[in-house]
Amino acid sequence: MTDCQGDVEGASTPMELYEKLSEQGEKVRSLKSAKADKTEVDAAVQLLLKLKMDYKQMTGQDYKAGCPPSENDAELNNGPAADGAGEDDTVDPWTVSTTNAKGVDYDKLIVRFGSSKIDQELVDRVEKVCGQKPHRFLRRGVFFSHRDMHQVLDAYEKHKSFYLYTGRGPSSEAMHVGHLIPFIFTKWLQDVFDIPLVIQLTDDEKYLWKDLTVEECHRFAIENAKDIIACGFDINKTFIFSDLDYMGSSPEFYRNVVKIQKHVTFNQVKGIFGFTDSDCIGKISFPAIQAAPSFSNSFPHVFGSRKDIQCLIPCAIDQDPYFRMTRDVAPRIGYPKPALLHSTFFPALQGAQTKMSASDANSSIFLTDTPKQIKNKINKHAFSGGKDTVEEHRKYGGNADVDVSFMYLTFFLEDDEQLEKIRQDYTSGALLTGELKKILIETLQPMIAQHQERRKQVTDELVKQFMTPRPLNFNL
Length: 476
What we know:
Blueprint: H1 2-9, H2 14-33, H3 38-59, E1 89-91, E2 96-98, H4 106-113, E3 116-117, H5 120-130, H6 136-139, E4 143-147, H7 149-157, E5 162-168, H8 180-193, E6 197-201, H9 203-209, H10 214-229, E7 238-242, H11 243-246, H12 251-262, H13 266-273, H14 281-291, H15 300-303, E8 310-316, H16 320-329, E9 339-343, E10 347-348, E11 351-355, H17 371-381, H18 390-396, H19 404-412, H20 416-428, H21 433-456, H22 460-466
Helix pairs in contact: 2-3, 5-7, 9-10, 12-14, 14-16, 17-21, 19-21
């Protein structure tokens, strides 16, 4: 803490603080790439967060790597910005952290990212248009933010359809339950709207960012595809592709990548993604590859040469920077802007300050875990909102807003009335932490066992069918 104070107090101008932030960001990246001790990395990250807060307090703006403060930026401490958006939250495609036990403040994140809140009016409209009860992720605010969803529904009501695009970065062989969130919701969207879907596996990205070989990344993509297929997607309406495979076999896809690259400057990607001069050129060019599936003519075997079909992207909100860039470029190259639906983060077992990570076995419930492993992880590691003793808990009740077991139930328990009763009983003290954890265990164990059974049915031949470029069966 002394070091932290010394660093901040030593910066008397925005430029000095900006330079300290740049140095600290580089230090965090170096520690992570060197696989330094977790305590050392956490301390460096906390200092980085503190410096970012002080930078915003001093300038009234969020820190962006590669975008130094202008001479007009405030040089005096005028207090925090009026909305305080994201002061304690770090959210980008590679880092999600907050100091708040309840997790990221999503209302402030909406303001910061400039998206729109999914309100009850939009939920009701989705129900009216698709003729189905809204998915629990919509009812409960798991998907909480959007861009242009009303426009998608307007067009759909006029019999003008759209397609879905989502993805997965295959950094390990085993996926965890948090990775299922966008796929569970995307499957529901595919079913109720009866539309085609493309799923991008960014094995190239993982090679560029992780200490993995190209062969390992491609193998992880194939293994992850099996888990994705096990979610139940319609093979006649779904195309799954590995970047390492598809980029080299689709001239149309690559042409779109090049068009996007031409319309985004190095300064822009530094400002959006925080790239530095020491990052490899592969990282700098990668965002165009994640953007390209947003345009229908990237998939001529599916859509032919049509470039006017709108894309809807369900994803976690940390992926939004890629698609803010995409939406900026789209009209300049003659394509419709993709629409987005943003989800909240799936919290780590230890609490909502960070999202679940595949690199920390104890922070995650994996899709390969046995019933015993699930039970032990939840009982041992799931952060509790309960009181220290049974007597105190019975008297004062628990805090469902910070309790990880309750958070997980909001994702996976279908019955709204049952979920609300659990909340009330836990808050009143009638339900103990151990009893709440038991409900979660009994919810997750069969869900994951059923997923494992479905995955066993996914053969290499079935994966090949899903990943072969081919016409899909749909009406637009």
